[in-house]
Amino acid sequence: RLYGTELVRIFGFDLTGRRVADCVPLIGQKPALEYREVIRSARPIYISRSSPSAREYLLMDKLALPLMDGGKVNKILAAIYLSEAE
Length: 86
Known about the structure:
This protein is of the alpha+beta class. Helices cover 28% and strands 37% of the residues. It is built from three helices and three strands, in the order H-H-H-E-E-E. The protein has a three-stranded antiparallel beta sheet with strand order 1-2-3, covered by helices on one side.
């Protein structure tokens, strides 16, 4: 639903209002697989990995939290940060 302005600056595209499945050509399969795991397990996940940006591969940290309605995950809240790791 919402893709932050800092992510647009870092990665070079805006995904606001688009479904993850529709963004695979831009973001690759990894994010979709990560979000499917959140839906399957109904548990938060933490990911630390490299990710392609508009300029280079960057290290990023992501926390994905399931938001539930009636016992089912209906949304995912994800926070993505550039990693401080070397």
